[in-house]
Amino acid sequence: MRVALDVLSATLLLTAVAFVLLAALGLHRFDDVFSRVHAATKSVTFGVLLAAAGAALQVDTGADTAKLILAAVLQLIGSPASAHLVMRGAYRTGAPLSPHTTVDHLAETGRVAENGDGRDDRPPPAIARAVDD
């Protein structure tokens, strides 16, 4: 039974390494900050979850397993929230979009988010441009 757990744990850990490697490749290959943050967030989050699952199969105590579960939950909460804030800040400060971007929904609506306080949340004019088809 222990051999099966070791094989499953090693498989989960190697798959986690593959996802983190894909995230690094995405950071290197993609054109703009939005694609890069997306690649890093999705792949690394799933990689951390797989690594935590693989490590949980190797630890002996319930306290260590609980710590790994807590780390996975915090990763699931923190990573998408921080990626959203980074992308929102990049968009609002005029980070250039990829030439492959065909639709900019935020520029079409003229608002980044409803904030309820009457402030104008429109993006700067440099990024509220039409994209060539």
Number of domains: 1
Backbone structural class = mainly alpha
Largest sheet features: none
Give the overall average pLDDT: 82
- Rounded to an integer in angstroms, the radius of gyration calculated over CA atoms is 20 Å
- Dominant shape: elongated
- Give the SSE string: HHHH
What is the percentage of strand-forming residues?
under 5%
Low-confidence stretches: 126-133
How does this model look, in words?
With 133 residues, the protein is mainly alpha-helical. It has one domain (2-97). The chain is built from 4 helices and no strands. It has helices at residues 2-29, 33-56, 62-92, 105-109. The longest helix has 31 residues, at 62-92. The N and C termini lie far apart (58 Å). Mean pLDDT is 82; it is low at 126-133.
Notable traits:
mainly alpha, elongated, 133 residues, disordered C terminus, 4 helices
Summarize the structure.
The protein is mainly α. The protein has helices spanning 2-29, 33-56, 62-92, 105-109.
Give a topology summary.
Blueprint: H1 2-29, H2 33-56, H3 62-92, H4 105-109
